[in-house]
Structures
1.
Amino acid sequence: MSTNKDDQSLYHEPHLRRERAEPDPSEEKARRTLAHEVAKMRQRDHRGESVYDEPDILPGRPNEVIEQDWSCSACDYNLRGLEVGHRCPECGHRELYRPSPPGAASYQNWLRQRLAETSERTGWAVAVAATLVGGLWAVVASLIGIHQSAAGGWGGFVLMVVFGPAVEETMKISTAACVVELRPYLFRRVEQLRLATIGAAAVFAALENVIYLNIYHPNHTFEFALFRWTVCVALHVGCTAVACHGLIRPWRQALNELRRPKITRGVPMLVMAILLHGAYNGSVFLYEVFVAPLR
């Protein structure tokens, strides 16, 4: 093979030249894009396909002793000190997941590293952002519900009692729930999670009152304004506090045991919040129909 360093030779390739190769200016945009993608991949849990994050169903794996807090997925009994595969002494359930080995490419070690790199100040910043985003999302949902129920009647009653509360309560905690599920390490204190949810409810209640009192009912009475700023604000904050309690449990378990959060465990508390909100809306609707409108 000829070693002449002409344009057709492999020695003309940039990585084989003796002198330093200058990058093509047209590739600068691609370089920035790739650098951005690499940075995102580092923060993303891209180890989800690790065998250490799969159910412990393969034969021949040693029954190691669990040396850290590790909850039974059925009853939350702490299995620490028991062998992997031992049935839960509380409910008899056989836990199919085990802690991953130190240094393994697993969700546990990914989360441990993210916790070490994330400051408490970041958690407060994320909580404030979730407060604003969650409140604004819930306002959008509320405006859609108001438009749909403007015709009144029993169709409006169903929207106010069933769909309206379900959408509003879900949207108020939606941003915080996404953080808990995808980036649980961003919340470092339970107060940050409460701010992200209950704060969103307060923002929503304030914006909703401004819309109600200045657009839908500009000629309102003082009593109606007082009712909106006391009872309605307390309703939204209280219901979201109930729903928030359902998120705290899986978030704490994720950080304490370094395992994937199961936010579906918070659904019962979210349903409770929706029921409380729906009961309030239903009572107000019936009061306005059979007694007097609140204006």
2.
Amino acid sequence: MSLFKCTKLIIKAEALDFMELPAYKGSVFRGAFGNAFRKTVCVAKSNSCTECILINQCLYSYAFESPVSDQSMICKNYSFAPHPFILIPPLDTRHSYEAGHIFHVELILIGKAIESLPYFIYAMIRMGELGLGKQRGQFRILSAKAMDENSKYTETIYQNETMMPIKTILTLEHAQQKARQLRSDQIALNFITPLRIQKNGQLNDNPSFNLIMKNCFRRMTSLLYFHCQDQSPPFYEDAIEQSKYIQKTNSNTSWQSWSRYSSRQKKRHKLGGLIGEMRFEGDLATFLPYLVACSWVNLGKGTAFGLGKYVIQEVINPPFDLHNPH
């Protein structure tokens, strides 16, 4: 039985000042959240986590700059382990919020990070006090609610400056239950935020089902290993081989470009990815639970910025035409 677990939270906030923001807000929110989180939990105030004597005990280091040890069985070519959180910004394309505007942020915590939920909520509160955008417009957190595998609210875990324990924890077993409600022969993946996955070192703008599943299994395996205390994650070679026989039947996608400024590197990075719907057909039963679970934690590169968010939609065949049965 998989040790995978995560929580999905919708955080409701209100702008207190005018806020100037880009169309895709992932970089702004992620950068401000990291800054607020560090101010919340960092006690050593070191210039770099790698130079800090508390690196192995610090929640900021764990969440944002967790190194891959020399003894690691996976991801040895990566500088850092995958983040145990995903912050999905408001998905509207507005360039500004007026005071009083209500917006929502989605926060997903994975594995051990769930135990530190109050710190993540407090960092969101602190982020609102520090402000967003060029004018550092402030906002306040109104509530945080947990969601189940069907994206329905289950409980309020923060409201009126009061924190409550969370009970809604999603597991692979929940993903299996959800998968049983889906058709096992046809599926549609609708990417809401840009998908960035690579093939042969290059970003791919027409991914096959096989490439998607390779990235899905890699994502789930690394999260299990680094954050869910599963030091012997399953291997998926047979399933990856089987995924080659799943056919893409339709693709209605486009490439969305955006950029972000790295305060650490002092330069702007151009980024982009696929948005839109891809449809697939074949024997999907083996893959559906993992596609459901991965839809909770995003797919591809840049997940901490909210990239790679998708929803699974059933393919509804057109009604049978009695006048033109063929």
3.
Amino acid sequence: MSPRTKKDLEPIRNRSMAKITEAALELFANEGYHATSVSKIAKKAGVSKGLIYNYYESKEDILQAIVTGANSESEELLKELFTGSPKKQLRNVLSYLFNLLNEDFHRIKLFLSLVAQVENIDFVHRLGVEKYQKTMAILENLFSQLNYENPRAEAQFITALVDGLAMQYAVLNDDLPLDSIRDNLLDKYQLK
């Protein structure tokens, strides 16, 4: 039997890295970044600590992979969400945000916990500021196209509302009436 080539090893490597980042994401979200050790991540992922260090230099490197991966995914998604009429774009954004709260809360919970620790993690702060500025510009343009009197204020309102919903959901979970809130927003923006 001949030795495996780099091409043969790539899917194995990708699966291992995905197991590591998924385990880290859950632990960072539930236990906090600082309270999570590489040993805990290895145990949760079902891999050796040595394998983790084969792929990542440190716990911060794992975090950076999670954050940059999520950022890349959101960049691609933004391209899809912001197509069609301005009303359709706004409906797409709101639908996506509420689906994200329902379906991928571990990631949201991680980012919420990072906000509290952001002064210690420079790359998260930089990325957060860049993402906020880009999102604000897109939303401000969208509300301008929808002929809002103060598009910037409306963009600030919607971003603050979404951040607040995420925080409330972190505390209240299923006790927060997400469907009712989503329906009220769709009514407010006349998107039904």
4.
Amino acid sequence: MNIIISGYTGFLGSHLIKVLKKNNSVTKLNLRNFKNYEKKKNFNFLKKKFKKKSILINCASSLKPRNNQDLFLNSKLPKIFFDLTKKNKMKFVHISTINSLIKERQDEYSISKRKGELQVNDPNFAIVRLSLVIKKKKGIYLPEGELRKFFVYLNFFTLPIYPFIYPGAMYRPIDIDYVCKKISILIKKKKLKTVNIQGNKTISSYELFKDICNQNNKYCFKISTLWLKKFVPNFIKNILYRSNLFQQVLNIKTYV
């Protein structure tokens, strides 16, 4: 099976390649240095990459969109991929987020990913919505993917105790190896279907950070969200509410 993967340098894409290349022919689709992204004709180079009876897995995404090109990756690129794969009679798997199903999530990341999903609709197309993807080794959290921000905070300062919002966002984490396994099973089926992949256990960001602290022999201190919501001025909260990270940490909207 010939598989094309975009966003192959990211957390999910890099792990997918390791798993899928064992039994498949894997082609890396590099968009990092691509320019003039608003003009569809500039994507003609993709036609050489796309072949019939191939599968495109789109992992290209911007978790913290800051400019038009970041938003383009999340909201418009899926449509371009969809048109090209449909024309070439290919299968298309688009990686998205559980956040797209939560209407209350109004940060740029969730909005743009939601728009990306609405661009396409076809039996040979599948959306894979993911919750928080993590990596563990022998029960120990590794500083990869979205967990990296917890480790950055832990190692940025040398403190006797680390303050953290309680309870914070609620997650249903899934291990990256499990995600890769589910995707490898999905693409083997004759008919693709949209799936939501989440873990069985719900955990708050505070509990997650506390576990990371414990494994690094450090300590964390609870800061109640009720206290913050009470004393932080409204105009500051209105600015922060548009932040994906702030929404996750303060549990303003649940990230499941």
